[in-house]
Write a structure and sequence with these properties.
Blueprint (H helix, E strand, L loop, with lengths): L2 H16 L1 H30 L15 H9 L4 E6 L7 H7 L9 E6 L20 E6 L5 E4 L5 E6 L4 E7 L1 H13 L5 E6 L8 H9 L3 E6 L12 E5 L7 H12 L3 E6 L7 H9 L2 E3 L3 E3 L6 E3 L2 E5 L2 E2 L16 E2 L4 E3 L7 E8 L5 E3 L14 E2 L3 E10 L2 E9 L6 H5 L5 H12 L11 E2 L9 H32 L1
Parallel strand pairs: 1-2, 7-8, 7-9, 9-10, 10-22
Antiparallel strand pairs: 1-3, 3-4, 5-6, 6-23, 11-17, 12-19, 13-14, 14-16, 15-18, 18-21, 19-20, 21-22
Helix pairs in contact: 7-8
Length: 483
């Protein structure tokens, strides 16, 4: 190669290193290296400090807003013991419990090895203690509640293997309930009326009540002389046969002395005069038939206009549900307030239909459309009546829906039926540090939408987005042709 060619090659190489393109690339490389170094240093710093961020879509390792409010309200010294061998902590349990002492200095989280200290918990509780469990202690009163490992998980049978699979975590729910248990002196007792074809309390609902420190006991008004003195709330769950006049008088006597009750009614209730008389006494009427919603925005599906998604008020029973969850009223009967309601009785609507709703009189009708004899709405689907009784106050809540407390509506996280029944019981029994937190599902979260939301999304996907793409394409073609 000639000397001139070598000189030109060397000059070309030299000029390439001095080019704007090379300088820009070198600058970008240096910046990238610096950014990577900074990210690594930040990562090491954060890891050293133990700082974590819950990036799960449903924030399953973060505390709910309701729990945070509960923790802030605690003015007693509470210690949460995680009973586990050192180094064997379950990551999901550990992440959740660590959140509790970051909000209120009154709450402390400690780790205790039950193998090293087998007698530790016996100073507080008589339970047989196992590892991977929790003990919540009120240091001011020495009240304590033990939470066993099996109570921290939700199980569901797998019909393929016929074994139980873990489907959810109840760590937050159980710790919240334990805090409420050790900070409240009197926990609520609910008596459920039996003997009239009432819908029985399912095993899931029974477990739900237990998890929320609510004792549920069956009660027969036919053989009793009075409602038990320790009854905080009387639950009358959709009786299919009428009370006797004596039973109705016994329950009325309980109510007029300041007792509290929850009535769940359906389209059969209209035919039970003694049950209806109790509701009428507190200004509530049951409309004949069942409600059909004429506005699909307030149904789960336009195909099922009796699967109601009512408007939710700002009542205290639904304060943690409104704008967060739906309440489902399956095959509900309409409620109205009587014109002759006593002046001493006040009512507050909790759930309501749209103005387009109507009550279908013929319960065997196969026609969804409004017929000649059907009754026009709107209707109340949930209401509370209150009446002062000396220093006490009678509170009567009435909810409607044939399957209102069935498991499918209680277990679904996006539905607020479970929260509503727990809130109602807790508020009626004056539970200060109480709330209703459902278990956290370990399955991929499912999206629940009412008909109106489905229609809006369909409009965007099927109409608006294609039109936008079409308009963009036309704009590009026109501009190119003009050039």
């Amino acid at each position: 190669m000639s000397e001139k060619k070598e000189h030109n090659i060397g000059k070309g190489i030299k000029s390439s290193f001095q080019s704007r393109k090379f300088k820009g690339g070198a600058y970008a490389t240096v910046i990238s290296a610096v950014v990577i170094l900074i990210v690594l240093l930040i990562n090491l710093f954060v890891q050293e400090l133990g700082i974590t961020k819950d990036l799960t879509a449903d924030s399953r390792y973060s505390l709910t807003d309701e729990t945070k409010e509960l923790i802030k309200s605690i003015d007693q010294n509470i210690t949460i013991y995680y009973l586990v061998e050192s180094g064997n902590e379950i990551d999901e349990f550990d992440r959740i419990v660590k959140n509790y002492d970051n909000i209120n200095s009154k709450i402390t989280v400690k780790y205790k090895d039950p193998v090293q200290y087998p007698k530790f918990a016996s100073q507080y509780v008589e339970d047989e203690i196992g590892t991977q469990s929790f003990l919540v202690v009120n240091e001011d009163t020495n009240a304590a509640k033990y939470i066993a490992y099996e109570d921290l998980l939700d199980y569901e049978i797998n019909y393929t293997t016929y074994q139980y699979d873990v489907t959810g975590l109840k760590v937050e729910a159980q710790i919240d309930a334990a805090i409420a248990a050790v900070t409240n002196e009197d926990l609520p007792t609910v008596y459920t009326l039996t003997g009239h074809g009432e819908t029985s309390v399912s095993s899931y609902l029974s477990e739900l009540l237990k998890d929320n420190n609510i004792t549920a006991t069956e009660f027969s008004s036919l053989t009793a002389q009075s409602v038990p003195e320790d009854c905080d709330v009387l639950l009358i769950n959709m009786p299919q046969y009428d009370l006797t006049e004596e039973e109705a008088a016994l329950i009325k006597d309980y109510l007029v002395q300041g007792g509290d009750a929850i009535f769940l009614v359906d389209y059969v209730t209209y035919t039970l005069p003694n049950v209806v008389s109790l509701l009428n006494y507190y200004g509530v009427d049951v409309v004949e038939g069942f409600v059909v919603e004429g506005d699909s925005q307030y149904t789960m599906s336009s195909r099922y206009p009796t699967l109601l998604v009512p408007k939710i008020s700002s009542h205290e029973f639904v304060k943690n549900i409104k704008d967060k969850k739906y309440i489902i009223v399956p095959l509900g009967s309409g409620l109205t307030i009587r014109n002759d309601i006593r002046e001493t009785v006040e009512t507050d609507t909790i759930l309501k239909t749209s103005d387009s709703a109507y009550s279908k009189i013929n319960i065997n009708s196969t026609v969804a459309e409004k017929e000649e004899n059907d009754i026009s709405g709107p209707f109340i689907l949930g209401v509370e009546a209150r009446e002062a009784v000396g220093e006490e106050e009678t509170r009567v809540a009435v909810y409607t829906g044939k399957a209102f407390l069935e498991d499918q509506y209680l277990q679904t996280a996006s539905f607020g039926n479970a929260d509503l029944i727990i809130n109602t019981i807790n508020e009626m029994s004056d539970q200060e540090n109480s709330l209703s937190i459902r278990s956290t599902s370990l399955d991929e979260p499912m999206v629940s939408m009412n008909t109106a939301q489905k229609n809006k999304i369909g409009l965007v996907v099927v109409v608006i987005l294609p039109l936008l793409f079409l308009a963009t394409g036309i704009t590009v073609v026109v501009r190119r042709r003009r050039k």
